[in-house]
Request: fold
Amino acid sequence: MSELNTLIGQPWRKPSFIKRPWLRWALVLGAIAYLIAAYMTIEVNWSRVYEGLERGKKFVLAFTSPDFTTRSSDIYEGMLESIIMTVASSVVGIAISIPIALGAARNVAPLPVYLICRSIIAISRALQEIIVAILLVAIFGFGPLAGFLTLSFATIGFLSKLLAEDIESMDRVQAEAIKASGARWTQWINYGVQPQVMPRLIGLSMYRLDINFRESAILGLVGAGGIGATLNTAFDRYEYDTAAAILLIIILIVMALEYLSGVIRARVQ
Amino acid sequence: MPVKDLEGRAIWQRRTSRESLAHWVMWLIGVAVFAYCWQQISASTTWFFVWDAPRIAGDIWTRATPPRWEYITQLGKPIWDTLNIATLGTIISLILAVPVAFLAARNTTPSRLFIRPIALLIIVSTRSINSLIWALLLIAIIGPGVFAGVIAIAIRSIGFCAKLLYEAIEEIDETQVEAITATGASRWQVMAYGIVPQIMPAFAGIAVFRWDINIRESTVLGLVGAGGIGLQLSSSLNVLAWPQVSLILLVILAAVVISEWVSAKVRGAII
Reply:
């Protein structure tokens, strides 16, 4: 009660996000010091920026008159290659992810398998797609095969991790009921576990398809196939209207994929 | 539930025969599409190089080990630049993402018919274009360097942050907002006391999450000339200095692991 009495009559103040005052001030001061230090290291050549603004304006204006025709065959081939890489790598990546996800779920897999699968996931997630692509291009040569392998590898880290988490948080009662009916391990997975995680698997797969398409657009920068090569050439030649056309197609396809995945997810859930 | 009659015994089936036929056709189409894709990839692959791959991989491995440890003294500045690109980029993108998120959320947008679609378009278009492409574009406009990297990361992150944030805004508890409105608060006061406290944890979580992703993305921005450690990576690759490449990859891996650890700790503390 004494605490309340001291508070009566004082105006209310919004409670701070971080309660301990010293920690709050230390964080604020540290952040300011860091921001100043970071700002100092960035050299901005304002006259260069000023010169560039003209080109920037040209690029923005290019979006109002994108040029689909001049390089239409390049764009078509690049886009087709990107889509092919996306589809093939999503299928293979998802197919590999499912057993790895089962192995990485602690309630399904024994400890040694769990550790192996978790480390595969960790490696796949820690390596940036572009870096993997550079290495794979060096090993397998230029072309969509390197891109396909890169995207499949990246899919494993993403999908297995999220799927494994879903398997770990499933309802054990249903799975146990299947086990109690005398099911084998494969039957247990098929009838006890799979139906529970299926909606999540479909949703994640659609999302990954979306990501793979977006990533496939940049793999061409390092020679791993797809629309990226055409885009890079367009930038190098300052053909902003072609670049704008390619970017618009990418945005449209991503929007279509997003809409499609929304429809599919609404149906399976 | 479909049941099949087999010699007087009723047998449970998962699907009716029409459903299973449809299912089968879908699978057939799927397999055909995949087969076509694989054929295309295979057609544009030089299989001679692929069969040679294990030897080349082994060759690269022998060249790249051991890493050239003394090169690490030259990596301090690039890694500091990388950190700055990620952090400043995240901060700028958050500043830009907040208004976009409020305009995109169904319950706070001023106009569902005109402004919401524009906000959603901003979200989709910044999200669908990779930061490397943004960097390419910005380098053409403002020249190579860290500054282009910061702006590329900032633009690229707007969509991600705004999308997660507007979903958080749409999920808020409306009764609290109503209570604040009932006290006669103005529009801005409702925002500050009814909505912002509810989305603050989500906001902090998103910020840290995106910062973690941005550390990864900023490590490769240098490949197209936008500053950071990727610059060292691409110059080492160009001269085939594999011992340096392996050291840089180790440094990048360490940076990614540390940033993931930091972000997990911070998120654990906030949420």
About this structure: The longest strand of chain B covers residues 3-6. Chain B has one domain: 77-270. DSSP finds eleven helices and two strands in chain B.
